[in-house]
Design a protein that fits this description.
- The chain is of the alpha/beta class.
- The protein contains 19 helices and twelve strands.
- Strands 3-2-1-4-5-6-7 form a seven-stranded mixed β-sheet, with helices on both faces. A three-stranded antiparallel β-sheet has the order 10-11-12.
- Strand 1, helix 1 and strand 2 form a beta-alpha-beta unit.
- Helix 8 runs antiparallel to helix 14, helix 14 crosses helix 18 and helix 15 packs antiparallel against helix 16.
- The protein is globular.
- Bound molecules: NADP nicotinamide-adenine-dinucleotide phosphate.
- The site of NADP nicotinamide-adenine-dinucleotide phosphate (NAP) has 22 residues, from helix 1, helix 4 and helix 6.
Length: 481
């Protein structure tokens, strides 16, 4: 089967949808490439379907695959995330030489990437973990690429990666993110933000359906209009398309016959777990993960729908409420991104990655699922203030949310009064209100913790840690001296 075309500059092993399309994208740039898949039949099918698109060397065995590559070898592994990646690395390791580069381009957990980087280094191999976003079409036509790993290894693949990435305003959506797990971390948060973005859109759709009483085609038109303003983005664009689609079987909107049970592959959960570990408030993304969990309790929801009391949504609203929803969606989205970027900043400090958050916004402007106009504003914010704590503090976003907040509050109040669940809208507003409070209610939390667990508290009027002898004489003692 092997048709040798001479030394290949790079190789891809794993030719399911993502690997196949990445390989085709690379080959179409005129780069000679070796391809391999565990099940050789898939490699054969790939060559039959796409062999004329570039200079492919198809290898049936990993030995042939490795032999087809120029040195230092550059090998993209695009297999199912998890143990299969370790399996492929173990099989490749004895076949490779010092300085060769293994590039895991799947959705691996950043801690696995850190571990694999160290393990490969013990064999003299260089390991890179790169995030690739854009799904099937992005991989073929230009994804957003988030490469993590050693800078010298990146230099060996930079030309190829930047040549296959999406391009916005002449800038490729690919930049070296940082060492070891940094690329996969940023991809994970990208996916988390995608969860929040999608949840917010779903809540807007729910409000337009049940509070405003609009049909799917009518809502499609609204999303189409919204796509020409501040909300302009790939997800808003495809929301209009999905809502406008007619079902061939029923003749009604397709969305009306799709089961209301959301799937997930885990990157949103990873993002939320890491935020909890870092102590970063990440309400938008986390609520989005919980909402998918609630959606999957279909039988329980069905039973509860007749057992649990609550108001029935009005099903009619005027045009001003529709615009309120647009503003609430925008403000909530600003919060979700502010939280996601704050998490990347916290991780960057914790891991010593020195992430350039403006560059992350830049490479998300094209190719990936959350690509949006709005990312230009985020890039500008970090270019001007590289050490920004929170995007909400940049004048552009401070004003945008200030302008939207009355509408946002009306939407949250109306939805709550009418019994329509809006966890991402409401928690984003709660975060906003919590973030802008100089003094919150945590003083009482500290008092309670001191009462039941002698956890001590600090005072606003003097330095030191204190404990009150609640169950004894009620006197206060200083505990740090
Ligand atoms: N699908 C997307 O939109 C998307 C977007 C971004 C990132 N990703 C990530 O990209 C990676 C690839 O995704 P995908 O959807 O193209 O494929 P996938 O369904 O996740 O994985 C299938 C591929 O993995 C190979 N594989 C599975 N177990 C293996 C093992 N133990 N040893 C060697 N190979 C093994 C399969 O080989 P066989 O043919 O032999 O079974 C096949 O090539 C994943 O990490 C995924 O999360 C996917």
């Amino acid at each position: 089967m092997t048709q040798s075309t001479g030394a290949s500059r790079i190789g891809v092993t794993g030719l399911a949808v993502m690997g196949a399309n990445l390989a085709r994208n690379i080959a179409r740039r005129g780069v000679p490439i070796a391809v391999h898949n565990r099940t050789a039949a898939r490699t054969k099918e790939f060559i039959e379907a796409h062999g004329d698109e570039g200079a492919f060397t198809a290898a049936e065995s990993l030995e042939d695959f490795v032999a087809a590559l120029e040195t230092p070898r550059r090998i993209i592994v695009m297999v199912k995330a998890g143990p299969p990646v370790d399996g492929v690395i173990s099989e490749l390791t004895p076949l490779l030489d010092d300085g060769d580069i293994i590039i895991d381009a799947g959705n691996s957990h950043f801690r696995d990437t850190k571990r694999r980087t160290e393990e490969c280094a013990t064999h003299g191999l260089r390991f890179m973990g790169i995030g690739v976003s854009g799904g099937e079409e992005g991989a073929l036509l230009g994804p957003s690429i988030m490469p993590g790993g050693d800078t010298h290894a990146y230099a060996e693949v930079e030309e190829i990666l930047t040549s296959i990435a999406a391009v916005v305003d002449g800038t490729p959506c690919c930049v070296h993110v940082g060492p070891d797990g940094a690329g996969h971390y940023v991809k994970m948060v990208h996916n988390g933000i995608e969860y929040a973005d999608i949840q917010l859109i779903a809540e807007a759709y729910d409000l337009l359906t049940h509070v405003a009483g609009l049909s799917a085609p009518a809502i499609a038109t609204i999303f189409e209009e919204w796509n020409s303003g501040d909300l302009e983005s790939f997800l808003i664009e495809i929301t209009a398309k999905v809502l406008a689609k007619t079902d061939e079987r029923s003749g009604g909107p397709l969305v009306d016959v799709i089961l209301d049970q959301a799937g997930q592959k885990g990157t949103g959960t990873w993002t939320a777990i890491d935020a909890l570990n870092l102590g970063v408030p990440l309400t938008g993304i986390t609520e989005a993960v919980f909402a998918r969990g609630l959606s999957s309790l279909r039988d329980e929801r069905s039973a509860a729908s007749t057992a649990l009391a609550g108001p029935t949504p009005a099903g009619q609203a005027d045009a001003s409420f529709v615009d309120d929803i647009r503003q609430a969606l925008y403000a909530s989205k600003v919060v979700a991104y502010a939280q996601g970027f704050a998490q990347m900043r916290a991780a960057s400090i914790a891991e010593g990655w020195d992430l350039d958050l403006g560059a992350m916004a830049t490479i998300w402007r094209g190719g990936c699922i959350i690509r949006a106009q709005f990312l230009n504003r985020i890039r500008d914010a970090y270019v001007e203030h590289p050490d920004l704590d929170n995007l909400l503090m940049v004048p552009y976003f401070t004003e945008a949310v200030a302008n939207a907040q009355d509408a946002w509050r009306r939407v949250v109040a109306t939805a709550t009064a009418q019994g329509v669940p809006i966890p991402a809208f409401a928690s984003s507003l709660a975060y906003y209100d919590g973030y802008r409070r100089e003094r919150g209610p945590a003083n009482l939390i500290q008092g309670l913790r001191d009462y039941f667990g002698a956890h001590t508290y600090k005072r606003i009027d003097t330095a030191g840690s204190f404990h009150t002898r609640w169950g004894q004489d009620g006197t206060e003692v200083r505990t740090d001296i």
